[in-house]
Amino acid sequence: MRTALECEGLTKRYGGLLAVDGLKLCVAQGEAYGLLGPNGSGKSTTIGMIVGVLAPDSGIARVHGHDVWRQPRQAKGLVGYVPQEVALYPDLTGRENLRYFGRLFGLRGRRLAERVSALLDVVGLADRADQLLGTYSGGMQRRINIAAGLVHEPSVLILDEPTVGVDPQSRNAILESVQRLVADGMTVLYTSHYMEEVEKVCDRVGVIDHGRILAEGTPEELMGMLAPGGRTEIEVEGDVRAAEAAVAALAGVTVTAHRSRLLIAWGEGADRLADVLRALDGVVTVVRTEAVRPTLEEVFLQLTGTSLRD
């Protein structure tokens, strides 16, 4: 499959701080790729170098083979960038904002008018197109912000936290718009702190921290890292601590107790549930067992740590 976006050895320092550390990234054409990382992980710096607003100290970023810094006109013309903050004019209407950004990219006349109308339909704001942007809700402004990033018909769309601070209905509308774009062949690089969004929208996910990709794969592949063999929740009656100790004595099995429940996990290989139940026999009464699917958030916390940092 053709590569749409790639980074090789991308590095950026701010004084003594190594913000991005030899980062390697490859996104295929038509793929939705989620970039997850805590505050200060290097996400924003990476995006800044990809879109050409930050110069790397070393390394290369390419869009469809065009070097972002050596061939800026070709590379930047292929990228649509939607920043975290709404970068539009409140004293212009939604339509006027899109026309303005279209003209910056050289669109004129009928082509510009048709493109603006099509994008207003894509983001579901055709009925509000001729109202001032300042009268829009936060969610509506973010939807127009996405349309502005698409007005020049890019092949790669970079969405940096596109749903921050919006209501659930607007978030759902934004996610549906992104899914339609990907279904139509758009390549998307998507950053978010909402794990359920990334799981819903993205084909593959990369977890970044300290300026490096720590793990990469489909959401299912990443979630499988926590318990490649299986994971089961067991509800018990009796001495939960004694039950925890009995299961902890089994080789290759991990257990966490919480109130009347035990969370059991094991590595690759044979199903260990039968061994666990035998260990619990005579110690507690097993009320219920249920296979439990790991979450992307658990993977994220395991890879990046649980402590808050800025």
Q: How can the largest sheet be summarized?
A: 6 strands, mixed
Helix run count: 11
Q: Please give the number of β-strands.
A: 14
Class from helix and strand fractions: alpha/beta
The CATH superfamily of the largest domain appears as P-loop containing nucleotide triphosphate hydrolases
Determine the CATH topology of the largest domain: Rossmann fold
Strand content: 25-35%
Count of individual domains: 2
User: Which term fits the overall shape?
Assistant: elongated
CATH secondary-structure class of the largest domain: Alpha Beta
> Helicity range of the residues?
25-40%
How far do the termini sit from each other?
A: 38 Å
Order of strands across the main sheet: 6-7-8-3-9-10
Describe this structure in a few short sentences.
The model has no long low-confidence stretch (mean pLDDT 92).
Give an account of the 3D structure.
The chain is α/β, with parallel strands linked by helices and 310 residues long. The chain folds into 2 domains: 3-218, P-loop containing nucleotide triphosphate hydrolases (Rossmann fold, 3-Layer(aba) Sandwich); 230-293, 2-Layer Sandwich (Alpha-Beta Plaits). It is built from 11 helices and 14 strands. The protein has helices at residues 43-50, 72-76, 94-104, 109-122, 138-150, 168-183, 195-201, 219-223, 240-248, 273-280, 296-304, and strands spanning 3-14, 17-28, 32-36, 58-63, 66-67, 79-82, 156-160, 187-191, 204-209, 212-217, 230-238, 253-258, 261-266, 284-291. A 6-stranded mixed sheet has the order 6-7-8-3-9-10, with helices on both faces. Strands 2-1-4-5 form a 4-stranded antiparallel sheet. A 4-stranded antiparallel sheet has the order 12-13-11-14, with helices on one face. A hairpin with a 2-residue loop joins strand 9 and strand 10 (212-217). Helix 3 crosses helix 4 (109-122). The mean pLDDT is 92.
